[in-house]
Amino acid sequence: MLTRSIAPSLNVNRAAPGAFGPVEPFFGLTGHAGLIATEFTYRKDEEIYGEDEPAEYVYQVVRGAMRTYKLLSDGRRQIGAFHLPGDVFGLESGTKHRLAAEAIIDSTVRLVKRRRLEHAAGTDVRVAHKLWTITADDLKRAEEHILLLGRKSAMERVANFLLEMDRRLTVAGTMALPMCRRDIGDYLGLTLETVSRALSQLNDEGVLGFSGARQIVLRNHQRLRNMDI
Amino acid sequence: MLTRSIAPSLNVNRAAPGAFGPVEPFFGLTGHAGLIATEFTYRKDEEIYGEDEPAEYVYQVVRGAMRTYKLLSDGRRQIGAFHLPGDVFGLESGTKHRLAAEAIIDSTVRLVKRRRLEHAAGTDVRVAHKLWTITADDLKRAEEHILLLGRKSAMERVANFLLEMDRRLTVAGTMALPMCRRDIGDYLGLTLETVSRALSQLNDEGVLGFSGARQIVLRNHQRLRNMDI
DNA sequence: CGGGTACTTGACTCTGGTCAAGATTTGTGG
DNA sequence: CCACAAATCTTGACCAGAGTCAAGTACCCG
C-alpha cells in the first residue's frame, strides 16, 4: 500500500500499524482540539523540510524513521534526533524549523497545521500544556545528548546509543537499525569508522551479535550499561 | 548591601539594578498571574539546587551569574548553560531538576513557586504560552550547542563562546567573564588548558586583548565570526 | 547473479588531553 | 596598603584517542 512516487503523496487510508501497533494520533490532541490530521508518505532520503524553512506543519511518525539535523557551511552534519513511530517532530514555538528533517527509510507521517495547533492552544489550556511537555521532553533529551557529546568517550557514546535503540526498537530480542553508520556517527559526534570499530569490538567481546550489519542482538545489557557510565 | 551569610538569605528590598538595568520580573508573568516573587542571595559556588532534586521553584537571575550542569559518576562535568541577569532557569515541566545549579559569583535571584506558576498556566493561556516559549528557547540553544559539541573544533568552540559572551555581557567595549577557564572548558567540551591555549592564540593574533585573565576586549569580531563557521 | 552501496579494517596522522612547572592574579590578614 | 598565600591561568613536553585515507569485504536490491 506504500506509495512510491518521488513527490510526497497523500495517503487517504489509515496507515497500517507497524511493529509498534497503531499510533495514537498526536496523543489525542487531534481528538479534543478538533484538529484534522493528514497522512503523507516519504521515500528514503526524502526531505520533509529544510533548516530555517517556515514551520507550517507539525508531524508525527506513523511508520518508518526520520532524522533531524543541522549542517555547517563546509558540510559537517550534526543529527539532533532520530524519530520513530509515535514521535512528534517539527514542533516549533517560533515560525521556522531550526533543524532540517529527512526520511531515513520509506516512511509515513501524520501532520497538522501549526497555526491550528497554536490556535487550539490559545483556547484550551490542555493543548497548551501538551505542547509545553512535548517541547520539555525534547529539551530533556537534548540536555542528556549535550552531556554525551561534551564528556563521553567513543565507546560510551556507542553503548548509550545501543541501549537507547534497544529500548525504542527491539522486537523479539533483535534490533533492526534503520540508519547507516554515517547517520549514527553524525548523531554521536563521531566518524562512521569509529562507530564501526566500536561495534566490531563489542561483537568480539560477545556483548552483541550481528545478523547483518543493521540487525543487532544485545547479549549483555549490563556490560553495556557499565560502559555507558 | 550584599548579604554574606553561608545560607541563602532573603532579600526584602528590590535588588539594585546591575549593568543590565532593572530586570523585568519573570517577563511580566508575576504581574498578570498574581504571583509573588521573592529574592535570595547566594555566595560564589553555592548550590541553588542539585540534579534530580524536586523542582519546587523557578528562578530568574537578578544580579550575578549561574551555571547549570550534569555530572558523570567519575566526576566529569558538562555545563549546560550559563545564566545571566534576566535569564530564567530551573523551569521544569516534570517534578525534578534535570541539571544542578550553582552561583558562579555572589548572585541574587528572584523566585516563584513552580506549583503557583503551573496553576496560573492552567487558568491563563498567556502564562501557558510563556512557559512554552521559555522552554522552546532553551531547546533552540541546546540544539545549537549540540552542533557545537558534536562537530566544531576547539578554536571554533572558543570563538563561538566569545561571541556569545560578547553579546550577553560586554559593557563599554569590555567583557568581564564571571567564570573560570575550567567552567568554560566544561561548557565547551574541552579542557581548561585547551581553552587557555585558544585564548592565548587569539591574543597573539590580535583578535582580542586581555586586561586580566577574565577581562577581555574583542578587537576583531569579523575574524571571530569567520572562525565560528 | 551481478553491481553498487554500505561496512569493516589497517596504517598513519593529528588534534586535543594529560601531566608538570612556572607565572599571574586574587584574596586576606597584619 | 602591603605582603604573603592560595587559587587561577599559562605554557611546555609528551601521549592517546579519534580522525583520515585507502583497500578490501559484505550485503542488498534489482
From TrEMBL, chains A, B:
Residues 152-222 form the HTH crp-type domain. One of its GO terms (molecular function) is DNA binding. GO terms for cellular component: cytosol. It comes from the Bacteria. InterPro entries: cNMP-bd_dom (IPR000595), cNMP-bd_dom_sf (IPR018490), Env_Response_Regulators (IPR050397), HTH_CRP (IPR012318), RmlC-like_jellyroll (IPR014710), WH-like_DNA-bd_sf (IPR036388), WH_DNA-bd_sf (IPR036390). Gene3D superfamilies: Jelly Rolls (2.60.120.10), Winged helix-like DNA-binding domain superfamily/Winged helix DNA-binding domain (1.10.10.10). Pfam families: cNMP_binding (PF00027), HTH_Crp_2 (PF13545). Keywords: DNA-binding, Nitrogen fixation, Transcription, Transcription regulation. This is Nitrogen fixation protein FixK. The gene is fixK.
